[in-house]
Amino acid sequence: MKAVFWGVLLACVDWGWGQENLTFDGDVRDFAISDRSVYVVTDDRLYQLNHDFTKVIKRDTPNVVYPNQEAPLFNETYPFKVNILLPFIKNNTLITCGTTKCGYCEILDLNEISKSVHSENIEVGSLDPGDSTIGFIVDVGTNSYIMTGRLQSRVRKACANSDHLLDLRNTLEGQHGGIFSYSDESTTPYIDARQKEKFQFVDGFQSNSHIYVFSNVPQERQVRVILFKSENSKTKTLGNFQGATLKCCGNTERRELLSSSVIQGSGGLHGQVLWAGVFTAGNTSDPINTVLAIYNISSTGPQLKYKDPDFCYKGCAEALPTGTTQDLHPEAVVFKYSSMTSVLAVRHNSWLVFFIGTGDGQLIKLAVDKAYKPACPRVLYNSDDDRRVFPKMHLDPVDRKHVYMALRNQMVRVPVAQCSEHKSLKDCWSAQDPFCGWCESRCSFQGDCLQPSAWISISEDSQQQNMVSYQVEKSSSGERITLTVKVHLNVNGTGSLTFTCNFFNRRGDLCDRTSPAPAFPQCSCLFSSDQLPAEGLNVTVKIRVGKQNLAEKLMLTNCSNISGPPTSALCSQCMTAGCSWINDVCSWTTRSANSDPIQDTCRLSQSGFNYSEPVIFSIEPSVLSFHGRNHALMNGENLDHVTKVRIQGHMNCSLKESPVWNHTGSSLTFHIPSGDKGSVSVCAVLPDGRCLGKATVTYGSSPSCTGLTPSTTWASGKRKIKVHGSHLEFVEEVVHDHAPQTIHTTYSSGTLWYHTPPFEHINQPVTSTVSLRVGNQTLACSSQLTYHPDPEFTSYTAIKTGNDVRVTIEKRADKLNITTEEILAFGVQEENQDVECVMDTIDTSNETDSVICEIKNTPNFNINSLRIRVGNFTKILLPKQAAPSLLIILVLIPIIIVVIVGAVLYSYNKQRKMAAQMNKQLDRLKNEIGNDIRQGFVDMQMEKCNLIENVGAIPFLDYKHFASRIFFPDGGPVMTSCIKDIGQPDESCQALSRLIRDQVFLTSFVHALEEQKNFNVKEKCAVASLLTVSLHGDLPYLTQVMEELLRALMEQTSNSQPKLMLRRTESIVEKLLTNWMSICLYGFLRESVGQPLFLLVCALTQQMSKGPVDSVTEKALYTLNEDWLLWQAQDFSPMRLQVLFAVGTDGEVSEPLEVSALDCDTVEQVKEKILLAFKTKFGFPYNTPLRQMHIEYEKDGRFVPLKEVDASSGVLGEVTMLNTLKHYKVPDGASIKVLSKTHPSLSPQSSLKDDQNYSKKYFHLIDPDIDQDQKKNPERKKLKLKEVYLTKLLSTKVAVHSFVENLFRTIWGTPNLKAPPAIKYFFDFLDAQGESRRISDQDVLHIWKTNSLPLRFWVNILKNPQFVFDMEKTPPLDGCLSVIAQAFMDSFSLAEKQLGKHDPTNKLLYAKDISQYKQEVRAYYKQVRDQPPISSSEFKEFLHKESKKHENEFNESAALRELYKYMQLYFDEIKLKLDQNGAPVELKEQLQHVKSLFDSLKSCSWN
User: Fold this and answer.
1) pTM of the complete model beyond 0.85
2) Cα distances (angstroms) measured from residue 950 to each of 954, 985, 1091, 1092, 1377
3) Beta bridge partners of residue 348, listed in sequence order
4) Does residue 1344 carry a pLDDT above 60?
5) Which of 498, 977, 1403, 1409 has the most crowded Cβ, counting Cβ within 10 A?
6) How far apart, in whole angstroms, are the C-alpha atoms of residue 1307 and residue 1324?
7) Which of 1138, 1183, 1185 is nearest to 1157 (CA)?
8) What single DSSP character describes residue 1298?
9) Extended beta strands in 1256-1371, E state
10) What share of the chain is helix, strand, coil (3-state, %, to 5)?
11) Cβ(247)–Cβ(228) below 8 Å
12) CB 121 within 8 A of CB 143
C-alpha cells in the first residue's frame, strides 16, 4: 500500500491545478516535443526535460570556430543561435540548425542531448537572427527530408548564401549528396520568391500525401499557402506546386497570419483537410484585433504551372508574373479577441477544441461543434503579468491530456481538462467539456473509461443549458397533451444501450398506454388534458441511461393561463413551462426541440413596466486587474431603478451580476467581480429583468510589488512610502501583517504611495510584510519594510541672525535616513503661539545628527520650546542649558563636596557587592566549564559506532565520467568535447593518430614541448590527458611510451635529489602516470575500495548531523578538523518530527515519516534532513527540490509556516539570526507538513544563500562580533573555550574509526596475496630502475612507490569522493577527509617525529595509530615485492582487456584536434627535436603531411 501511495505522491509534481512550469535563465526561442522529452532552446542553452519537467538536462550552445586564414594561430568564434529544432523520431535524433557566421547544424541523440552524432558548418536556416526560418520533417517516397525555408543573408557577404527560399534537405548521410544536401539525382530543385523583403514564414506541415507551407508575403500584404504533392523525388515534389491566397474575414480585412494549426484527423466530408489560423489587421487598439478562422485547404484548384505571382520553381525571371491564385475564404470565424498569438487545434469525437494563447498571458480553451458553433471559452491558464504566449504550442503526444506553451522565459504544461474535479454526472455534464464524460462513478477522460463501461458526455449538437429539456403539446382536439422529454447526452460504449423513462404524478403513473416507446435521446408521455388542473401539475420523470439514473421534477402549466404584458420575464416563464412564445404571446403551439435558447428568444421582449431606460456614461475604473475591483462607480442617467449590474464575457458567456448601492439617479456604486483578462460588457439590470445601457470594462494583469522606498519607517508610523512594481494603478489598499486595518493608497502620474501604520511597543528593528489589496486578493511584496524605534531628538539651540532665528536640533544617529521634507518643527512662545521653523539641511555623523531650520522674519520672537513632528511622532524639546553663573557655582560647591563623600561611601559598598557578585559569577563559570568538560568526557567514553552500514545501492559514476574528472579536474569545454559521442574520424585526425603511434615522434614531441619556457604546468597536464584519451584504445603502447619518458625523467633527477622524483606533477609524464594509474586501478577501485570509501563518507555525514552545524559558516560540532570545529555551539536537544507530505489540492496528506532533527536546526537544515530521510526510507529522492519546498508546523490545529527569516527573527545590530525549531518553539514529536512552492497558497521564494552578502547579513549559532546587552540572551553568552570542545574531534574519530581502518586496509590489502596487476608491474619497474641505476638506498625506492601510488592516486580519491560517486562534497566533509588523507599519507612516511602539545590537532588525532599503519604499509610493500613477477605478455593482455572494456568511451578525434593545436603552435621546435634525435626522413614527411591535412580544412569544429 505504501509503495503505491508514494508512487502517487511522486506523480503530483504540481499541487495546484495540475500545472507544471519551469523558468529558464533566458527567453524561450523555440521548443519541440517527442514521445519521451521536451526540448527547449534559449539564446545560450538547449534543455531536455521529461514531460512533467522533473528532470532537466542542460547543454550550452557551442561557440562555432572558424579558422582565420590571415592569422593561422588564432580562430574566429561565433555564438550558435538555434532557429531549427526538429525531433527526427524515425532516426532517434534531434536536428538543430541555426545562425553563426555562415550557418551550423548539429545532430544530437534524441534521448541524451549531451551526445553529439554529427556537426557541420552549413547554412540551413536564415543567417540573420531577425529573419524568418521554417523547418519540418516530410516523407517523400521512402525518404524523409527536411522542408526548410530561409531568407538570404543581407549582411554575411563572406558566406556562400544560396538564394533558395524553400528546398528539401537530406536527413541521413546515406541519401544522395550526403546529409543536409538539397540536390536531387540530376538537378537542384528549389522554390524561390519574387519579394523577400520582410517575408515571413508562419507554419508548415504534411497531411497524408500533401505538404503545406504558410507565409505572410509583404507585397500587397497577403497570406499565402503553397501546396505540394508528395511524389517519389525532390524534383517532382517541388516542381508541381499550387498556391492560394487566404482571405480573412468579412468586412474587415486581416492580412497577416500570426499562428496556425492543422486539425489532425479532420475527417470531414470527402476527407477534407481542415486548418485554423489566427489573423490580424495589425490594429492593436481594436478590441477584436485578432480572429480565429477555420478553412478547408484540401485543394487549391487548377493553376498554370510556374505562373504563381509570388513564388516560382527554381530562379524567378525578371518579367512580372502573369499567373493568378485561388482565393480561399473561411468556413467559419469561431472566435474574436484583442490579442491572440497562437493556436493549437485538437479533434475530439465530433468536437473541435482550440487552445488559444494570447498576448496578455492566457491560455483559452474553445470548443466548437460540428456546425462550427463555438461554446463558451474557458481560461485554463492566466499569468500574473502580460507575458506573451509563444506562437507555437504542442499537445502531449503520449497522454494527449496536456498542452505545452512558452511564455517569455517560462515553459508551462497545462491539463486540457480537470475532469476529476466533478463528482456527479450532473456536475460532469454542466462543465460542458468535450474531454469529460461520466464513467460508472466518476468523471473522466474517454481513454480512462475502460470497456465495457459506457462513457456519457455532452451531446454532439450545440451546447444546452439543461441536461434534460421538455416541451408540452396539446392535440388539435384539445383532449390530449403530449409531454416530450429529451436528454442532451452522448453515450459511447459497447453493446446495446438501456434507455427508459417513467412519468409519475402524485396519483402514480401519468402516461396512458398509447404513449410511444422511448427512443434515445427522447421519450414521450401522452395523457388526458383533464389531468392538467388550472394551478398546474407536478410531474416526476425517472430516466435510466445505461447504468445511470436521472430524476427530473417538472411543473406543467396550462399554456393558455400564462398571460399578461409581454415582458422578458413572462417570456421566460412561458418557455420554461415547455410552451411556445410567438408574437409576444404564450401558446400551445408546438415548439421545435432545437429552437433557440430561452435567453435568445426572450431578449427582445418588451417590458410591461414604465421604467426610464438607464444610460451608462462611464465606469470608474474601466480598466482593472483580473482580481476584480471593490467600490466601482457607474455614472449615467436614469439609474434610479437599477437593481444590479451585469458583467458579461465573450459570446455572452460567464455572466456575473453584482448588487448596487448609493443610487443618486446619475451614479451608483457596485463591485466588479474577478474575471479573465480581456474586455467584457456591462449593462444595468431593471426590476423587469431587462438589462439596458452598455459599457465596457477591461480586465488586465495582476499588480506586482517589487520594492519599497524608503525601506524603513519609525514606530509611530505615517511615513510616506513609495511602492515599486507593475500595474500599480489597480491597487486599492495596502495591508501590513502586523496591523489589521487596511491603508488608503494614492496613485498619480505612475506612482503609488501610502502612509505607514504604527507598530507599537518596539525597542529594536522589526520587519513587517507589506501586501497589496486588489479586489478580494492580497498580494505580498517581494521586499519587507523595517520598523525602527522613533527618532530621538535630544535638544536644540537657537541663535538670532538679524530678524531670523537659526535653530540647530540634535538627534541621535539612526538608520531611518529621514529627509528635511519629513520633519516639521514649530517654535513655541509662552502664549502657545506656533511659528514654523523652515527646514534647511541635515548634517549626519556617526553618533549625532544636526537638523538645521530657520524661523523667518520674527525679530521679537522668543522660543521657549520646540515642537517637532515626524509622521505621527511628536516631540516637545527644551533648549540646551547655558553655562551656570558664578553665584550658582558658589552655592553648588558645598553640595558637590557632600555628593563626593556620599559617592565614596557608595562606591565602597558597591565594590563589596561587586566582589561578592564576581565570586558568584566565577563559581558559575567554573561549574559551566566543568560541566562542558565532563559532558565531553562522557560523550567520548559513551560514543558508540552505531552509524548504519547498509546504505543501499552505491551511486558509482560510470567509467567515462570518473576518468574524465581525473584527466580534466577543472572540467571545461575540452573535457566536454572528449566525452561526447564519437563521430566518424576525418582523414586529418586519422593521420595524426598514426603519427603519435610512432614512439620516436611522440617522445620527441613531448620533450620539445617541455623544453619551451612558456609551456606551463597547466598545459603540460592538458597535453598528458589529451595523449591519454587519444591512445586510450592502445594502452600497451601508452604504457611503453610512459616507461620511456619516466626513464628520461630519472636521468634528470638521479644525480641531484632522486627522492624528489614524482613528488609533484611538473611534467607531462607525471600527469600521464596519474591517468595511467586511474585507468588500470578503476576495476580495483570499483570492486574493492568503492564500498568502504562510500561507507566512510556516509558515516562522516551522519556523525556530523548528530550535532549542530552552523548554517552560515558550515562549522560542525562533530568533526575531525579543528578548523571546522563549532566550539561556540549552544546547548541543543535531539528531536523526532512526524513529517506529512501534502497530496493533491484538498488538504490531503501522506502517512507520517519520522525524521530526526535538532532543536537548533534552521528551517533549511530541517528541509535537508527531511529529503535525506525520504531518500533513505524509500530508495529514491523526493520529487520536489529543496528550494521549492515549504514546511509548516502544526500548532493548535492550524499549520504555521516555518521560514528562514521573518518578522519575528532576532536581530543583533544589522545582522539577522536565522530561525530555528527552538525559535518557533516546535516540540519533540511535532507534525510538520511539506508543501511545494507550486501549491496555490504559496509563492516562490529564493534561497537566502543566493545573497552574495549572506555571511554578513545573517548568523545562526555563531554570534556576530558586535556589542550587545548580555541580559537579553544569557544562554548565548556563556563563556565558551575552544579547547574544551577538542574532545568532539576525538568523539568523531571514535565514531568513524572502524570505517577509516577498513578503508585503509582495503587499499593496502592484497586479496589472495596478490596486488592489482598495475601496482605489481609498476613497482617492479621502479625496482628495476633502481637496480640499473645502482641505487642502494631502499628509502629512495620506498619514496618512489609512495609518490607514484598513494600520493598520486589514492589521496586524490580520498579527498575527492565526488570523482567516484554521484554526490556533492560539502566544506565540513572536505575538512574531515583532509584529516583522514593526511593520516593516510603519514602512514607511508619514513620520517619519525615526536609530536607535542603545540602540534596541530590534525596530526595529533591519529598520532597513536600511525605507527601501526606504518608497519602495515611496510608489510604491504614487501608483499608486493615478494609476489611472483607478472610477465610482459600477461600485463599486455591485461592492458588489452582494459582498452577493449572501455572502447569508444571517449571521442579520440576531439582529443587529436586539441592536440594538434599544440603541434601547430610548436611546429618548428618539434621538427628541430626530430632532427636532433635523428628521426628518419619518412617521419618528418609524415609530420608535414598531417600539417597539410589540417591546414586544408576550410572549416572545422573544434568544439
Assistant:
1) no
2) 10, 46, 10, 11, 21
3) 351
4) yes
5) 977
6) 19
7) 1138
8) H
9) 1258-1259
10) 30, 30, 40
11) no
12) no
